[in-house]
Amino acid sequence: MKLRDLVYRLYARRVEGRLDHAQVPKHIGVILDGNRRWARADGRTLEQGHQAGADKISELLGWCAETDVEVVTLWMLSTDNLDRPADQLGPLLTIIENTVRDLAADGRWRVHHVGTLDLLPGRTQTVLKEAEQATLDVDGILVNVAVGYGGRQEIVDAVRSLVLEAADHGDSFEELAEKVDIDHITKHLYTRGQPDPDLIIRTSGEQRLSGFMLWQSAHSEYYFCEVFWPAFRKVDFLRALRDYAARHRRYGN
C-alpha cells in the first residue's frame, strides 16, 4: 500500500469516527457532474468517462448505507442531455440501462424512476419499469434514478396531472383553482410520498442546481465539491455529511 493511500484511509476513518449519525441527512440528492471533463483530463474517451461515473454509483450507495441515509436521488440524465448527438446519447443510454439493471439486481436498493418516460427510447423505458417493479418489496435505500429529468418539466407534469385528476372528478374551474396549492402539487411530483432532500451534492466545481429538484429543494442544504464525479471518494462524501451536520437549518427563516 502506498503511503498516500494509507494516509487517505486514516484520514477518512478519522472523519467518519467524528460523524454524528443523528445528524446525517435522510435524503441526499446528487448531481453526478464531471464525467466528460474527467475523461478528457485523464486521456479517456467520453464513453469511458460515463462508465467510470456509473461505476462510482455503487460505491456511493454503499457509503450511504453505512451512514443511515434512507433516500438517494441520482441525476443521471437531464432532459437537455436528450438533445445530444446520437453517437453520444446512444452509448450513454446503454450505460444508464446497464447501471439501472445492476442496481435492481444488487438486492439492497429499491429503484424508482423520476423523470418523463415518454421522452425516452422504448428500450430505456422498459429497463426503468422492470427495475422498479423488481425492487418494489426491497427493504433498503430508496434510489431515485433521475433519467430524462428536468425540474421545470416535473412541475409542469405535476400541474398537468393535477388538472387531469380534477377533470376526471368533474371539478369546476373554481374547484380546480382551489386545488392549485403547494400540498396538491406536491402530491403529483415524481417524488410524491417521499421526504424532500435534506442535502444536495454537486460535483465538478459547478455551483448551480441546473434545474435539479426545483420544487423539493426549497429548504435543502447544498454542498459543492470540486472533484469530478468519477474521482469522488468516500472522504469527499464524509466531508459533505460533516459540513451538513455543522449547519443550522433555518427552513427559509
Offer a quick outline of the entry.
By secondary structure, the protein is an alpha/beta fold. It has nine helices and six strands, in the order H-E-H-H-E-H-E-H-E-H-H-H-E-E-H. It has a six-stranded parallel sheet with strand order 3-4-2-1-5-6, with helices on both faces.
What does this structure look like?
With about 250 residues, the protein is α/β, with parallel strands linked by helices. The protein contains nine helices and six strands; from the N terminus they run H-E-H-H-E-H-E-H-E-H-H-H-E-E-H. It has a six-stranded parallel sheet with strand order 3-4-2-1-5-6, sandwiched between helices. The N and C termini lie far apart (about 50 Å). The mean pLDDT is about 90.
Biggest sheet features: 6 strands, parallel
Arithmetic mean pLDDT: 92
Number of strands: 6
Low-confidence runs of at least 5 consecutive residues = none
Please tell me how large the radius of gyration is.
19 Å
Question: Strand pairing plus helix content: what structural class?
Answer: alpha/beta
Shape, principal axes of CA atoms: globular
User: How large a portion of the residues is in β-strands, by DSSP E?
Assistant: 5-15%
| Overall tally of structural domains | 1
Please state how the strands of the largest beta sheet are arranged side by side.
3-4-2-1-5-6
Q: Which CATH first-tier class would you pick?
A: Alpha Beta
CATH-assigned homologous superfamily: Decaprenyl diphosphate synthase-like
- Give me the strand/helix succession: HEHHEHEHEHHHEEH
Number of helices: 9
